[in-house]
Structure formats: C-alpha cells, structure tokens
TrEMBL record:
Gene3D superfamilies: Phosphate transport system protein phou homolog 2, domain 2 (1.20.58.220). This is DUF47 family protein. Belongs to the UPF0111 family. It comes from Nonomuraea dietziae. InterPro entries: PhoU-like_sf (IPR038078), Put_Phosphate_transp_reg (IPR018445), UPF0111_domain (IPR052912).
Length: 219
C-alpha cells in the first residue's frame, strides 16, 4: 500500500475513534467472545440432562472452541488498530483471556465427561445453569461499558453471585459424595465437579477484571 493510502487509513481510524465507533466495535467483539463461551456452556448443559450425547457434544465443542479462538483473535487484531478503547488495552486483553479460559475449561469438562463416562451427569445441571446465568450477566455488563458505565458494577456483582453459586453447588455435592461409599463413579464425578468449579473461578476472574477496569476508568 502507498504512503498516501496508509495515511488515509490512519485518518479514517482516527475519525472513527472521535465518533466512538472504535469503542463500540471493541465492545461488540468482547460480547461476541462471551456469546461463544455461553454456547459452550449451553452445550455442556445439554449433555448433563441427556439432550445431547456425550460423543456428539465433544465433537460439537471442537467447533465452538474454534469459534472462540477466532473471536479472540479478531479482538486482538482490533486492539492493535484502534486508537481509543473503552477501558485500558491491558484490561481488555486480561478480560478476553479470562473468557477464553472459561471456554477452555468447558471444553475440558465436555471431553472428560465423555472419557470418564460416569453413569449420571445430572449433578452438573445446576452448576452449568449458574455458569450460563453468569455469562449472561457478564455480557450485559460489557454491553453497558459505553452507554451506561455506572450500572456495569451491578451486572458484575450478579456475575460474581453466579460464580458463588457454582462454588456452593460444588461444595454441597462433594459433601454428599464423601458421605457415601467410595466407588469409581465417585472419583469420576469428583474430577468433573472440580472442572466445573474451575469454570466458575475463571468466570469470576473475568468479572473482577471488568470491575477493576471500570474503577480505573472512573478515576
């Protein structure tokens, strides 16, 4: 590209930044990444109550994971081009990485539920519903960064509440398992429960990153 062409592209990006288009583009890309993670959680949930076979879910999760990788890569490319972002670039990178971690643990849960093969996965229904709720609240918080930044904290707190619910369900189910006889299925379920707990913790980290970023922005 010629020097004139490059200068023209920079001017267009600068004009977009001044009109707020770049910030909205970044917000939309983060929301897109959250939406892919939510699709992964919905898929995992569908296996928990038997609507989707475990092998089929594992295959489908590979596609969802690729969609997540593509969404993150597109966000990273955008951050390299835009001049202004709704929150610090470093915080956006951390937020994106935490969302990616949520999807990675969901992928591992689906894969391990197929590999380990416990007889019953209904123990995962409620924790995964809490994860889905938390991702919905996180998406809502991200959407409000530009138009209603004062309400982001409320949505973030709702995300944290969902994460706490995942932890509570994890602990309650472990208590039940330890009170019974030790069987192979007990160990399998414990491993899958630990994976779901990790999903909740990564989602909590994403919420914390966004909350910290908004606090810095307000100062």
């Amino acid at each position: 590209m010629s020097r004139t062409g490059r200068r023209g592209r920079r001017l267009v990006r600068a004009w977009d930044d001044l009109r707020g288009r770049s910030g909205r583009r970044v917000v939309d890309l983060v929301r897109g990444q959250v939406a892919v993670a939510r699709a992964g959680a919905v898929l995992a949930h569908s296996t928990a109550f038997g609507a989707t076979g475990r092998s089929a879910a594992r295959t489908r999760m590979t596609v969802v994971e690729h969609e997540g990788d593509a969404a993150r890569a597109e966000l990273v490319r955008a951050l390299r081009r835009v001049l202004a972002t709704p929150i610090d670039r470093e915080d956006l990178f951390r937020l994106s990485r935490s969302i990616d971690d949520v999807l990675d643990h969901l992928r591992d849960y689906v894969r391990e539920s197929d590999l380990f093969g416990p007889r019953d996965l209904t123990f995962a229904v409620e924790p995964l519903l809490a994860v889905i709720d938390g991702l919905d609240e996180l998406e809502s918080a991200v959407a409000k960064m530009l138009d209603d930044p004062g309400s982001v904290t409320v949505a973030v707190l709702a995300t944290r509440k969902s994460c706490s619910r995942v932890r509570q369900l994890y602990q309650a189910r472990l208590t039940e398992l330890f009170a019974g006889s030790l069987e192979m299925d007990t160990l399998r379920e414990r491993e899958l429960l630990s994976r779901l707990d990790a999903v909740g913790r990564r989602l909590g980290e994403a919420a914390d990153v966004l909350a910290d970023a908004m606090l810095k922005r307000s100062h």
